[in-house]
Fold this protein.
Amino acid sequence: MWRPLVFLCWPALTGLAQAADYSGPLFDAHLHYNEEAYQGPHPLDDVLARMQRNGVRAIVANSRPNDGTKTLAGAGTQTRAAGVTVVPFIRLYRNRADYDNWFRDESIYTMVQTEFARGTAAGPYRGIGEFHLYDSANANGPVAKKLMQFAAEKQLAVLAHVDDVAIDLLMAHASGVRLIWAHTGIGGAPAARVQALLDKYPRLMGELSYRPGLTCGEGSLCPEWRALLLKYPDRFMIGSDTWVNQRWMYYDELMRGYRRWLGDLPPDVARRIAWDNGANLFQLNRP
Ligand SMILES: [Zn+2]
């Protein structure tokens, strides 16, 4: 008699059980090391310690200005000791004024080309960004178009903080580009729209910091997003987006939050979103 009872109770019991947090390596696909961090409370040893104690084994590094990225890329001894691989991206911003004008500023196109030619101590730059488009129409700005084509030509990834309309506009300039959609739509593009874009552009990836509607309640995945991550396990990555020092201050909590919801997924899917997708994109070795 007890067998059917056990069978009936089993789903309920597993529903109550808290899934274990993801404990494997993390690839932080959206990291800034801006001047107010490295000149202020977060020198190199501080940020590397934060990565190391959180199991972050690789980072997409970009900064305003690019000096922060160069500091990370040039610190081979320390980054190796911390077990962190640096994937350098070229930031388009020399200062805050560039946020609103980069897409039509020829001097930024020149700066990107100069930086790319120079490379970093950790090897060539692997991407461009993060850049922002607060008005998606500016995706058609002359420099935005040229940069997308430059990225395609040099096989650089592009990290773009844009809305869903701008994804279509940017992709029209250079459909072969590996576009990483920062926040996968910080304005909250519906999951169905995200899915349509992933279907339309096989080289589009989504980075998940600040993504509205991703987590529900106790920091676990909302059902709609869980379904999307399960449907596209090779298309998403996590990131810290340390755009202000406060994000560095809470770096531990941010990574703990990711580990929490990654634990809601089957282990192989969690591993892909946490590490493999970024590592495969930039040909990194398994830690
Ligand atoms: Zn950012």
The CA atoms of residues 72 and 110 lie 23 Å apart. Residues 30, 32, 130, 182, 241, 243 surround zinc ion (CB under 6 Å). The longest helix spans residues 2-16.
